[in-house]
Amino acid sequence: MSRGNPDNKHGSIDYLLGITILMLIGGLLYPPVQLLWPQRHLPLASSALIPVADEAGIRPGSALPFVYQENPFLLINVGRTRHAVSAICTYRESILRWDEDRQVLVCPAHGCTFDVRGNVLHGLAPRPLPTLNVVLSGGRIYAGG
Fold first, then answer.
1. Are 47 and 145 in contact (CB under 8 A)?
2. pTM
3. CATH architecture of the domain with residue range 50-144
4. pLDDT per residue over 99-113, tens digit each?
5. Which residue in 6, 69, 72, 76 could disulfide with 87, CB within 3.0 to 4.6 Å?
6. Cα radius of gyration (the chain)
7. Strands, E, within the chain: which ranges?
8. Domain coordinates of the chain in residue numbers?
9. How far is CA 39 from CA 42, 77, 126, in A?
């Protein structure tokens, strides 16, 4: 009477255990490696200002998303000052959201927070957010490098 090969069953379990251990080690090493060697984005090339909104089109305390050179940005109106900052977190490249109550940009993935000038307030973000110049002219808001 043949009962099958018991080594085959243990071999499969050992294989799966080995794969699991490798994935665990990779998962543990990934964050420190990304922190030490973050992905580098190409700097935004200087270019002309682009129209973003009418001056009356963005209420105080709010943010308006727009795209500049294929990169998502937010135009933020705080008081009488407007700021244009990247909408991509510098830690894990998640899309940031504007927290109107706290007046900060928040990364929903890891909790990093940034002020309206793109400075890191909290979290593991390795660098500030890229910003653009903002100009008011003729009732329009323009942003650019």
1. yes
2. 0.68
3. 3-layer Sandwich (2.102)
4. 999 999 999 999 999
5. 72
6. 23
7. 50-54, 63-68, 71-78, 81-86, 97-99, 104-106, 113-114, 120-122, 131-137, 140-144
8. 1-37, 50-144
9. 10, 30, 11
